[in-house]
Protein: Flavodoxin-like fold domain-containing protein
Organism: Vibrio ruber
Amino acid sequence: MTKILVINANPKSNSFCKSLAEQYTSVAADKHDVEQIHIGDLNFKISLDEGYSEITTLEPDLLDFQNKVQWSEHIVIISPVWWGAMPAKFKGAIDRTFLPGFSFKYLEGKSIPQKLLKGRTSQLIITLDTPPFWYKLIYGNPIYKQLKHTILEFCGIKNTSSTYFGPMISASSKHRKNWLDKTARLASQIK
């Protein structure tokens, strides 16, 4: 049994990302221990105004976010692409919670920090209005590069797969059903 954290990174109260998160959770919960976070439900100050220069007290929702990340063995991030990247509220949650001492630690004399979230894996499910091949080829796949390399790997989390659904803007109900079915298959493949 794997401890799975499913993060719906879309802040909207009703979105296809939320439906995907619910689908993933429902299927995975048959064999695994699953927790969910819906970014839109969290109440916190989005900006880390002073960076790491000053300690900013974490709100209860962000403490819960950190606790669920620490508890997890596998993290599923379901995010829309907004202006080429992740929604600001999700980025704000990362900025505020993936802090030194929690997700990484600077070591004196070393240019690469210690990765404090090692041993975890992740899976990305991305929705977008742009056709996925165009987003990857022409725009350079910035959400993937940021999440996989500069956030997850930086902290020691190994991404195992990335799945793209789009374009959402013109998707028929049949497309959406197929994407929900694929999400169920992804959830059923977790060991």
Q: What stands out?
A: The first strand starts at residue 3 and ends at 8. The chain is about 35% helix and 20% strand. The longest helix spans residues 173-188.
